[in-house]
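Reopening closed ticket. The problem is back. First fold of the pair:
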Amino acid sequence: MTTPRCPSYASSVLRKILVANRGEIACRILRTCKRLGIATVAVYSDADAQAPHVAMADEAVRIGPAPVKDSYLNIEAILDAARTTGADGVHPGYGLLSEKRAFADAVAAAGITFIGPPPEVLDAFGDKIRAREVARKVGVLPPPGTDGPLDPADTEAVAREAERIGFPLLVKAAGGGGGIGMQIVPDAAKLARAVQACSDRGRQAFADPRVYLERYIEKPRHIEVQVLCDGKGGAVALGERECSVQRRHQKIIEETPSPAAFFQGSEGEARRQKLLSDALRVVTSVGYVGAGTVELVASQSGEIWFLEVNARLQVEHCVTEMVTGIDLVEQQIRVASGEALAPEILANERRGSSIEARVYAEDPAKKFAPQPGRVTRLAWPEAGEDLRIETGITEGLDVTPFYDPMLAKVVAFGETRADAIQRLDAALGATTLELTGPAGPAASNLTFLRKVLASEEFAGGQYDTSLAEALVKR
């Protein structure tokens, strides 16, 4: 990890933190806790008994069998682990229980500090329909869409709303995230089926069948803003991230600052500053505390609309850390401990460029299908000030079908964007990764990531969310 340029000192409040997560993000959080002198507790399922995060922690507690519903989503098992070990803080990481109010409430009821936004904030942003209303009230507009949830069975009402909004449009699960429960609908003929499919997916993944419609922005760019608030009046937007290299609506390469043409020059900088101000206005309107991300969508001309708020740490937080020198996990812990953001954090100084590539056990040639198997050979390039390797695997471990197949994040820094691209490409090229599945060699996306970096569109910074799937066909 890059050494923080901002001063660091041990927190005086939290003494032992349980990390309610797994994989690379668990390792990432544990590393910061150790640097701060805070004792740590890992939790693990049967499938993760030999995982690196288990060995890294001072203590580790088994919480159940491999399926997430029986382990990493088992609130009572996690709380039992916290009570048994005497943890006075719980960090949820990202995904899993990180944005679940029921978990935050249960942690608080146990007399333990939840290292994340307060429950009422999770309520405000955990529901995308409500989040749109929060943004609208402070003058930050979402794309045109429905004002409330739709009943998939009321096909006439759905058709009327679709006609009002116009095609193409998006059907979205109200409780969704990570591209789950979302479909692009080009015309009326495919509407009813898409609404029902997204509703079913929302019910399965989030226990929430509600859906809504939103105008689809063609050739969109996915922009997001990292925010940090202390609940005491201190709030800062730590720059924007460009997250438009995606497959299945899920990100695989992220960078900061955005290279989009509409952020260039004096007019572009004015647009950037307005974007940061808008993002802060949305989160502070509900009393936000901690780290979070305001996600937005932009047209090629630079019109920007609000999408949602992820009330947690993002997978791609590392690129922001690289250009600011701020350890966002440390700041989450400090804010949760009742500390105010330091002046040097609020000063929001950024330099250079950073790009992150997510390494997955997946086959781009097969629609990015996950590739479970065993990591039979693994070697990373040497990390340093300008290169981070964030991973939760080691050679000999299995990539199971129970969890997301992300193996690592490779994050490069450069004084210029070109430097960052070159450094990241060299790091990916120096990586040795071999996977063996049940029927023989299994694929990863390493070669594909380098193909993206080498593409004319990415090199020129003028790409949109269709780039990754277009490159698969070349």
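Second fold of the pair, where the issue appears:
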Amino acid sequence: MGRSKRKASRNTSTATATATAAAVVSISDLPNHITCDILSRLPLNSIFICKRVCKIWRTIILEPYFAKLHRSRSPLSLIFYRNGTERNNDNSPSSHFEILQLYDPPVKSRRNATMKFTTEIYFPHVNIQIVDSCNGLVLLSNYSSYIDDHVIVCNPLRAQHLVLPKPPKHALRDSYIELGFGHSPVTDQYKVVRLTHVYSIPARLYCDIYTIGIDDEWRSIGDIGQPPFYLVSRLFFLNGALHWLGHEDSWFICYFDIEKEQFGSFPLPSEFGETFLHLGVVDNWLYVRNDHSVGPCKFWVMKDYGDFGSWTLEWVIEGPLTHRFNGPVKPLKMLKDGTLLMMLTSCNPPTNLSEATLASYNPQTRVLKEKKYCGILPQGDSVADVPCFFSPMDALK
């Protein structure tokens, strides 16, 4: 009798152990779509660690579906580019990107500080700068008033880049050049647009376009005649078009439709005044800011794109910080608590070194204060965008 009980107990223990072993499932046994969903919720530094764990995870992270899912869940980031300002152990120039993810609310862990991404993009004796970005792809150039021999589209997360052909030169002197970068959701094409405003009499405007994966050379729309409005700002992409400020007796917003490759314009309200204005985009809104060298900094926002009656004086900002940082005041995003996250910059004339800080503005209390994010805010030009694992090489396919 006792022997039978002991045998039954052993059989029960063995069956329990077998069932327990069968119930243990490794994370590698999860379906790929569930693994993709989990990985897409991680911060960038954790994703790069996971990318080195196994081939399956690496393959998932490099899939176009993962790129779209991750970007839809990622916070806005500040993307900086350094052109050979540091050197490797072999004393060769080291170019790299730095990315600061702007979590809301800010994450205070050191693991989420500014991340560094190396790149092979380096041109000796050429000052490559960050110009623009679109859907996580970054546009670099050495563009200035009339020089932009090097135009590059790249993705910092994939360490891949495309060097575009040399753009045509319409004038070497008395000209102003701006580059823009946009995407057509209809054709899923990415286009780099180059406007050359020649200050001759009469003034002329030239437009050249390069479509990634389609064009072998720049396409020229040609001399489109005397521009009705002087080009006086950078180009900003929103709602399938590039926008910029123009002026001739009064202020206008000009635009270039990326898909149709057509120009257009609309006037700004007269109450904006004749002081120098600045254009920008924040949270899918066009905004116009006055010159804040005297008086408060005022922001007008087009609440409903295309509705010219929807311009609203949204923020009026003043205080010690705006006087300390005398450079561009750039809104970045609206935070969950209703405050406006901004970047304030200034340039110190003796050294020409720029100073930058993140600040938040509370529209209710009208208080502007510095906001601390983990990591040191890098100096220099930057773009605000959501990084993406989509590769520009995919456009070539």
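Update: turned out to be a display glitch only; the data is intact. Residues 2-23 form the longest helix (22 residues). Helices lie at 2-23, 32-39, 44-51, 55-61, 64-73, 320-324, 392-395. Please close again.
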